Amino acid sequence: MPAEPGPDRRPLGLFLEPLRIVAERCHAGGIAETERVIAERGGVLAQFQPLIRELCAASGAFAEVTELPPDAARLRLFTYLEQTLAAVAEPRPLVLLLDDLQWADALSAAAVRHLATARRSASRRLLLIAATRPRSLGAGEAEVAPATGAQELTLPHLSEAALHQVIADMLGVRAAPREFVGYVAKQSGGNPYFAAEYLRAAIASSLLLMDHRGGWRWSGGKQPAARLALPASLGQAMALRLGELDASATSVAQIAAVLGGEQAADLLGAVLGGEEDRFARALHALVTADVLEEQRPGALRFCHDELRRLAQEGVSEARRREIQERAAVAMEAAGMSADATVAGTLGLRWEAAGRPERARPYFLAAARHAASRYSPAEAARLFAAYFRTCDGATEESISARLAYATEALGYGQDPDAADSQLRLAMAEAAALGARGCEAEALHRLGKMHLDAGDLAGSSRHQAAALKIWEEIADRSGQARAWLEMAQIALDRGDAEEAMALCTRARDHCRGAGDDRHEGIALAYAGIIAHDQADYAAAEQYSREALAIHTRIGDRRGSGNTLNNLALVLAEMGRRGEALALYEEALQTHRAVGHRLSEGTTLANMARLLGEAGEVGRARHLFRESLRIQKETANHANRGFTFFDLAVLERRAGTGPARLARLLDRAEAIADSAAARLLAVLCACERGHHALLQRQDTADLIAAVKESAAALGVDLREATEAGRALGRLQRAMRAVERGAPLLHGECPDTIPAGLRGQVGDPSAGGSP
User: Fold this and answer.
1) Which long-range CB contacts under 8 A does 233-236 form with residues at least 24 apart?
2) CA distances (Å), origin 76, targets 40, 83, 94, 104
3) What is the pLDDT of residues 489-509, one digit of tens each?
4) What's the predicted TM-score (pTM) here?
5) C-alpha distances in Å from residue 543, one per residue of 377, 549, 568
6) Using CA of residue 209, residue 212, residue 216, residue 219, what is the dihedral sign?
7) pLDDT confidence tier of residue 673, bands split at 50, 70 and 90
8) Strand order across the beta sheet in which 292-296 lies
């Protein structure tokens, strides 16, 4: 299905028609088929295809959509789209043909890329065919073509034999006049569209005539150029076609050309004005002349881009503005102003009409809608259009700039540009006296600095935001600032300060009745307690947080807290309970489409299974986790996963070259992400590698302790870093007294399940 060309392309436009067909099939199949094909994915897909919302609401299967960061939400959308198509393909394989990929919007192009690179077994029953014109790649298609690894086929121009068959089919006969076919093959260069133009002209010029037996006779000879009224270029041929139209048809063609893309016939008629019969006659003439074609009932577009270009040539600038304004007024009269999916088009109409004040609210609504539908590139374009229509800074424009920075440029899209926009928003808010907006800009800047590892910069911004929120008595803002400051304190190694800030935020939220942030504060208190090896407190905090998340329906918070609680129980030796909680967390993450947390939980689950001796299953989950973490740009957690996989592989007896590569990747991420704990863990793991290689390890422990002290990492025995150091020390002492090691480690420090899986330590080993 062709996507709409031009700047008002609908997000996920290439897939709207396939999703409509899916909805119709589910409607015919009833509730059972709806639940099988769409299930809990309906809420997300319905944001693009309203028929799915109606279908799911009727069946009772509709699920509300949990808000996610743009990158994670895009992945959820693509995953749900893939799963839905795979479900359709389950009874029998499915072929999905997407035409005119060069016109695809950015979200459609990214979805095609996801489908083309998917490796899930269910997706192998789906054959994706995407067609594009040569040398006319659009922005969306260009993004897809180089990286999919898909098979690429270039269709050459038709040979004379193939043209003969095409022309014969068009004429409805077995054989076409060979003199005519030879002439067309020479003149058209094998272009089927151009060949059709010659056929049309030959019939119109009476050089190709039907005889009394239903056959066709050619009377033009071998060189009919003098008699065949067809120019030598395709553009001239199309200009000739447009020149044959009457005034009304020409006017409708010009209106369609100025409006661009696929347009509703009703809208063209409203812009033309006058009698309905006049418009109907003009439309009939345009369709009959192959200038416009009906893509679907009531929707028209030009048969060829060149026709649209030629139709626009004679339209004055004043007439263009008039057409755009009449179209905008007609759309508003039809009730489209409340539809966020067409707000961007309305904005463009009013801007092109020279009315920026009318365009502004539509651009803002469309930008926020695009951001909510996981299309940061589309959102950035629409936010830029909104700012283009602003006369100066207002609280609305500052709020929009904050959204632009975080929802369109943030989350790894363009951090430098996001930082610049936040600083501009902060300056505008200060000049305007919009204190709440100024605090919000400072808060978001602080979060960005924390993500980049700049603890000092993050602390300064959060303190400044907190001061303003205190001055204007914004209790929710104060709690948010304290929680971010708790994260900073923990990253600095000051767990006591982190817990104090967390407790303050929790008590503040409880007093203000802010359940959501109270749950977040409790969950974070559980993380701090776990980091300090106070597992009883960590379990208590996590269960209190989980109760709040469940009560207020915060499924995303529930999934994260289930994962954290499982971590605590695993440390306490309650592995069966931990594994069950990990499974529940995974189901929750997948239900809300939270891919980032799904990758984290898979890694934690893999570590637990590895310690239980299920090495093969652990490897599989580690690989799946790494794939998701790469997709979601979860850089720091990807480093911990490489480290955990390196430990598993060493204990399982994998060769030193692979171990070194895994550890190199973990250390590189630790350096780039300022991951202090990961750096110390990697240093300890290097020690085990040194023991495996029989290297000199005399100064190793001192070097690890010095590194931990410099980074502020707690080496108490109960902490993760302390346990890692303890395992290394025991292995080194075993080497000194001549005791055997198991793959570079003292056997009794390896989990029992894994120890039994990889061999009998009494049989000796390295070094």
Assistant:
1) 234/191, 234/193, 234/194, 234/197, 234/306, 235/306, 235/310
2) 12, 10, 22, 20
3) 887 778 899 999 999 999 999
4) 0.62
5) 39, 10, 11
6) negative
7) low
8) 263-264, 299-302, 292-296
